[in-house]
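Section 5.1 Outputs to date
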Amino acid sequence: MELASRCCSFSQAALSLLLIFLVISHYFQDSNEQIVETLALGSILQPNQTLISKNQNFALNFFSHGPDRNYLGVSFSRNFGGRQIWVANRNHPARDGAHLSFSLDGNLIISNPDQTSVWMSGTSGRNVSSMLLQKSGNLILTHNSGSPIWQSFDHPTDTWMPNMKFYLGSSIFASKSPADPAEGRFSFWMLQTTAEVSVWNATTEYWTSGVWSGHIWSGIPEMKYNALYDFFFWNDSGRPYFTWSERNTTMALAHFVLDSNGTVSVRSWDSVNGWWYVMWKAPDNPCKVERLCGQNGICKSDSTPFCSCPQGFKPFDPTGWSQGDWSMGCVTNLSSDCKYVKEFSFLNNTYYDQGSGVGSSARFYSGHDQAWCEASCIRDCACLGFSFDGGPSNCSLQYGPLFNGKTSPDIRQNFFLRVNYMEQSPNNQLLPNGRKNKTKIYWIFGLVGCASLLLVVALLLWRIPPRKRFADRQSSEYISGILQKFSYKELQRATGNFSEKLGTGGFGSVYKGCLGDHTIIAVKKLHKLTHGDKDFRTEIRTIGIIQHVNLARLRGFCAEDLHRLLVYEYMPNGSLNTFLFTKPGEQPHTVLNWDRRFAIALGTARGIMYLHEECSSCIIHCDIKPENILLDANFCAKVSDFGLAKLMGRELSRVITTMRGTRGYLAPEWLSSLPITAKADVYSYGMTLLEIISGRKNMEVNNSCLDKWFFPLWACQQARQGNFSSLVDIKLCGNFHAEQLKIAVLVAIWCIQDEEINRPTMARVVQMLEGTLRVTDPPFPKSLSFFEAEKNNSEIELSKLSVEEELPT
């Protein structure tokens, strides 16, 4: 019995093993996959073969997205979801049955079954000896000596892996969709000049990391608290690059990826739950991605998918749309000759960006109701829709391509999108005015009414002088689709009759406002401006086309009667001076740490350099000071009021110095009637840089310590003695970067030299701050000896320092 029992147990065990073997055999027979450890010269990797890295984290194999759409790529192994991190032939799919050959002369070639080449590594005749899929996921071809000749990390697709070199000036491109690895419209750049990460849709930037401080990017403050990754900046043989690595791990499983929806994310493997999770993402809301849903499309961040077509519209490319490629947007058979009656889809809590496309614009009208607004859009075949918020002057007609449509309960605006009535289905939600079931009689009455209205309009236009008609038409247009023309009433309403003042400067007062689409703006009312309307528009057009990450963006203007106003993007953190200086009785602001100060100084220098050297014409700012350096939500520096010196006109004074600059920042040539060049801005920047370092005003007439009352003099003295740390703002409590401090102080002293020929250009200032140009010891500015001789006299005539007092700030 015991023997029989043992035989029975053995038989059951053998049967179980046999069943397991059969199941495994059946699985591999179905998958027909073969694991390859290496690929030698002259070998072939077939479609059913996979090359595995030694740590089994990565795989090189073919994958398919449909008939005759086959690709070769490196991916995470099946244990980690199998996501591709590199695709060789992303823009050139291979036909079914394609294979990879490793030729005897050292070339990797993807070939179709008929032997036509689809992709090759281009390494023929370079003494390639072997191919290896490294533990990092890098596919590498090595020389006979063992040195790398070619590697996939040098040709990234949409992923930045740990320890992969990302050279300045290089980029990666997102896939068109999850089902199409071809290069899409979104790109991720490491900018050559600023060493910052920038994400674009074609030619439009919609997210930036901010400048590199040496430890973090200024626009990603959460990097300060990062305990998972280390970032490094290197400069090998004149080719600077960034790398990064994971802390406390050698698995290299985290990765940066630019998704097909335009967001940049860092993903890490959750070994407990067995999935990838997003550690960080930018932009934080996918609807902030520029033109994510294409023309006419609408984005909703909490829906899946994010993009949808409004009622009466359908995807231009239904196949691509269903796969997640929304670039072609939505269309309707809208007749351009007004042959058909038009209706409007009522889009609740929705808006489209105004002027978001080439040729797009908006026209604003006052004193009309919604019915008038609707009728005006119907009469004009070029009108694509309108918005009306219930106010007496908030009728906005939209023209040209519509992009960046967004819907959310937080949006307090409704949009009426024009569609073809003949294509509306019974379930569509139209403009709620009871006109779903039209009759022929209604059509006739409508046509008669329109004809009568046109006749009345024609009679009115006949009675209005031609010059007046031209002015009215011009008042509701954009300037070349770049700047928006506002009426004075619109800005009066947006600012609550100019009730919330943000500040006052030499050129005018600034007020906070809010547009109809809930965009926060800053409105500057210019003082003492006598420019004619034509000259004003010409200068504004010049300022409006200037765009740089470190320049405040001009959104629009108002030139109505004697009113001259400029509309800027709003900066949540205000001006730099409020963080550097605290007036008696004021609540102190957050202390700017050293990294943030240095990033602001560098960003300001880059903005001024752009005005001097990279614009179509050199623009001299003439009033560089902390009050004119604005800070966005991420404390990125934005130089403001550029171009206003030219705009205000020389006729305001006998010499150009009047209304040009502020006491304590004026270059010596202002006081000697010498010609003013861009070097005057360099001097003002040097004075401003000293204030950023020290957190104190250059002019301190009431300081009890009389030998320090003119700070630049004392700063130069301390620099000559090598005592740089004494210049740092005491609020930093000694937390600063010593080498950066020394560079910044020396650069500031070079900038405030008496002779403009001795001052560096702003391009050289940027290079010195970035560390790419060596900073030598500057001479002592001779003009400061005036203050040294008078330092025991606290009653110095301050009028000697400036031609004109600045208005209070």
